[in-house]
Design goal:
The chain is mainly beta. It has one domain. It has 2 helices and 13 strands, in the order βββαββββββαββββ. The strands form 6 sheets. Strands 2-1-4 form a 3-stranded antiparallel beta sheet, with no helix packed on it. It has a two-stranded antiparallel ribbon with strand order 3-5. Strands 6-9 form a two-stranded antiparallel sheet. The longest helix is centred in the C-terminal third of the chain and has 18 residues.
């Protein structure tokens, strides 16, 4: 498949949008159909030579989109450890479920209930050194979009059955048929 990507050809160089060939996901990889994308601070560190990365390389991994294909993603523990009272031995098979990250029952009361008043503790934009540098712009854009939309409509009506993307990596809504009710 051919896609447009942000490519960095040399340390200190400019990011350029180029057509690149994208293979199917390999083990441990996921294919996401991106709706919006940005450059994060790790991309900038790579550009500046502060983070080792083979060049030329595709950057701009921070984005919002829908998972459309998942490669094999099961791995094994590299050392003995304990996690939440459970012993994990080197070689034990493990699987990371990103979908559970913002739904941890030890962090959130009623994690599976939609609650707009819940304190914001989610990890949608990462945290620490992996925090998305564009998160504030994304939040601002989403707020403005919702504010403008809600001023123009009287409501949103579900017109069909939601379709979910069920994966063991990153799931979510694949389709949500709605009708906007005029104000």
């Amino acid at each position: 498949m051919e896609v447009t990507a942000a490519v960095l050809r040399e340390v200190g160089g400019d990011f350029g949008l180029e057509k690149v060939r994208l293979d199917a996901p390999r083990p441990g990889e996921v294919l996401v159909q991106i709706s919006a994308v940005g450059i994060c601070h790790t991309d900038l560190a790579t550009r500046d030579g502060a983070q080792p990365f083979p060049l030329p390389g595709v950057l701009g991994h921070e984005g919002a989109g829908v998972v459309v294909e998942v490669g094999e993603g099961v791995t094994s523990a590299s050392a003995d450890t304990e996690l939440r009272g459970r012993r994990i031995r080197a070689g034990d098979r493990l699987m990371l479920l990103y979908a559970s990250g913002s739904r941890d029952e030890e962090v959130f009361e009623d994690p599976d209930v939609f609650n707009v008043e819940r304190p914001v503790k989610h990890i949608s934009f990462g945290a620490g050194p992996h925090a998305c540098v564009g998160m504030h712009v994304a939040k601002l854009e989403m707020g403005i979009m919702l504010e403008e939309l809600l001023r123009r409509i009287n409501g949103i009506e579900l017109t069909g059955k939601p379709k979910y993307a069920y994966t063991n990596f990153v799931g979510g809504l694949k389709r949500l048929p709605v009708r906007l009710l005029k104000a």
